[in-house]
Design brief:
four-stranded antiparallel sheet; Helicase, Ruva Protein, domain 3; alpha+beta; binds zinc ion; 2 domains; 10 strands; elongated; N-terminal domain of MutM-like DNA repair proteins
């Protein structure tokens, strides 16, 4: 699934290629990933795309004011799309690429690719097409309070959040740090790849409780995360499965992964064997030597890291064992 760097890459590409263009008409095919298809057919024709920005793991195609004069000068956006969208933004098309979504402009004479579900005809002879074989994406026209309410559901922007704010968010929770990094209400935009990579870089075990991190550890983790995200954006993201940007170009950052997808290989830092465990229901890759497992608290309940007891837990442990996955944090 595209994460912050991949979505940023696509958003920057689209900002360069379609911002300022007017949508002449809309054709919808399969619509089960669209919140309200009728609203898109009703609201988008005639509207100009003022700006394309990333917000968390999705894109916002901001629409210019309905009443703007035809042929008005196009807004030129700054190169930094990492920030919070304009306070003045009133209407937008939200696009989440899901697992396999692709949104890109094509010349209208180019044949439609299979699984093209949405076509926006643009005023320069091109078509903005949304192609998505698996349709795990999402598309929605959002305006006014609905748009504001949608954006408020999400946490801090990882590239902008201060160390103090980040530390406050993760240290106030008993949840495991891996789960907190993935929780879009805590931080918006981080997924499995960049969570694992930043935890390895900061030498923090993915099952460590957020509340057990020191301020210094949280600050180190944020620095690692930001450095990795910036580098990944420079490299146009990671092309796992079939991610390509708005120009159809693959990212290169997968060649720089230190732990993600490297189970059984040697740690680049210490030579130990990279392990994979399940934390918060997700595969987590880590080095058992560089990233020490959190100690289980004796007495007082043990918090989030206590091994579950009782029949149910025993059955669950047996099941996970059968799957060949380690449930606990022991290497
Ligand atoms: Zn190591």
């Amino acid at each position: 699934m595209p994460e912050l760097p991949e979505v940023e890459t696509v958003a920057r590409g689209l900002q360069g290629s379609i911002a300022g263009r007017r949508i002449l008409s809309v054709t919808l095919r399969k619509t089960d990933f669209i919140d309200d298809p009728v609203a898109i057919e009703r609201e988008l024709p005639g509207r100009r795309i003022a700006r394309v920005e990333r917000f968390g793991k999705f894109m916002l195609l901001q629409l210019a004011n309905k009443n703007e004069a035809l042929g008005a000068a196009t807004e030129s956006g700054s190169a930094d799309h990492a920030g919070i969208p304009d306070a003045g933004i009133q209407e937008a098309l939200l696009v989440h690429l899901g697992m396999t979504g692709n949104l890109a402009p094509h010349f209208s004479e180019q044949p439609l690719a299979k699984h093209t579900h949405v076509t926006f005809v643009l005023d320069d002879g091109r078509e903005l097409r949304y192609v998505d074989p698996r349709r795990f994406g999402r598309m929605a026209y959002l305006a006014g309070e609905t748009l504001a309410a949608e954006l408020l559901r999400f946490g801090a922007e990882p590239l902008l959040v201060s160390a103090e704010e980040f530390a406050r968010r993760v240290r106030s929770s008993r949840a495991r740090i891996k789960a907190l990094l993935l929780d879009q209400r805590v931080l918006r935009g981080v997924g499995n790849i960049y969570a694992d990579e930043s935890l390895w870089s900061a030498r923090i075990h993915p099952a460590t409780a957020g509340g057990n991190l020191t301020f210094a550890e949280a600050a180190t983790l944020l620095r690692a995360l930001q450095k990795i995200l910036r580098k990944a954006i420079q490299m146009r993201g990671s092309s796992i499965s079939d991610f390509v940007d708005a120009d159809g170009v693959e990212g290169d950052y997968q060649q720089h992964h230190k732990v993600y997808g490297r189970e059984g290989e040697k740690c680049f830092r210490c030579g130990a064997t990279i392990k994979r465990i399940i934390v918060a229901g997700r595969s987590s890759h880590f080095c058992p030597v560089c990233q020490r497992a959190p100690k289980r608290k004796s007495g007082s309940g043990g918090g989030a890291l206590k091994k579950p007891t009782g029949r149910r837990a025993r059955v669950a442990r047996k099941k996970t064992k059968r799957k060949g996955r380690l449930r606990t944090s022991k290497g």
